[in-house]
Amino acid sequence: MFKRDRWDEILEALNANKLRTAMTAFGVAWGIFILVVLLALTNGLRNGVLKDFGDFATNSMFMWTQGTSKPYKGLPKGRYFNYKIDDVAAIKSQIPSLKYVSPRNQLGGFRGNNNVVRGTKTGAFEIYGDYPEYIKQQPMDVIQGRFISYSDIDAKRKICVIGAGVVKGLYDKGEKTLGTYIKINGVNFLVVGTFKMSNSQGNSEEEASTIYIPFTTFGQAFNRGDRVGWMAITAEDNVPITTVKQQVFDLMKSRHKVHPDDDRAIGHFDLAEEFGRINGLFTILAFVGYFVGILVLASGIIGINNIMLIVVKERTKEIGIRRALGATPWMVKGQILQESLILTILSGMVGVSFAAIIIWGMNAVLDSVGEVENFANPSVDISVILTALLILVVSGLLAGLIPANGATKMKPVDALRVE
User: Does the record's keyword annotation contain Transmembrane helix (predicted)?
Assistant: First the structure.
């Protein structure tokens, strides 16, 4: 246990050569500082990149059609085909491990030609024809009103849910939105809800400039019939979409007379696979952060080890007197280890404190300049701090172990002879 006398001895030993102690402590502080800051930067990159996924269900994929690359059953190579609404029902019935299968159609774009009119105001916005379950795949905050319902789908109602960017572009500040009409490509739609993304991803301006209408209404109003532009498919939570997507492809190929080996006819983007790949990359980066930080920290620990060797040599006669007065080897070893441990932990905490200041400064700068591409909220959680503390304790013990063992091997008579 630490008694007052022991504290006084430790402080006296550390103050005996202040410059030497400060330089040694700097090595440990710098090592732990590098470790924490590297992990914070890695988390900042991870947060920035994963923000592009937003809140979209990561166990999902998007699937669309492309030109065939092989002739099949009398049909030529290079043939184009479209998904139909019946394909959605077939996928749901034949592949039960899927949670959501959402057919989608799209019109226009927020950087395209003006396609929406309200009074004297016009704008170019993304128009999507969707089913109600899409809000479960891409969560969004409905600010006013509601999202699309199945009664809208069945009745093919000309209603729409508009993003915050659409409200800003077509309405005056404070103006009522619910119950008003906007005209999309010449067709009037009743506004029944407004929304914003619950976690902005990708291009936030594009997301805010989005309008959702019922899928069936989209097909009727814009002459799409039962055609499906693409599908957003989410698997059950315990079933990776990557393991079942081939079943979906095979089913679509058989329904549209596509060669079973034609892998180019169906385009897809596996969000789960991409998410796993990015997570794996940042796991490697975190490992590199730990590796580099521990290497830098090791140089500081070697410095403490050398200092403790010098301290033991300088106090050889003192150790001999302690042994002669009855101090056990463990008492001597304990004092050396405690001095090494205190020096390591104090200097390490200084490094952690400076790292915390730097991390706080980075977040303050990010808050002031706004969103930075692929970088957001650099931080470390409590587990990293606890890991750093554990590393410091182990390092302190290791740094003092060799000097402590050397001190206990000295015979009192030999120690007293040293001048």
Answer: yes
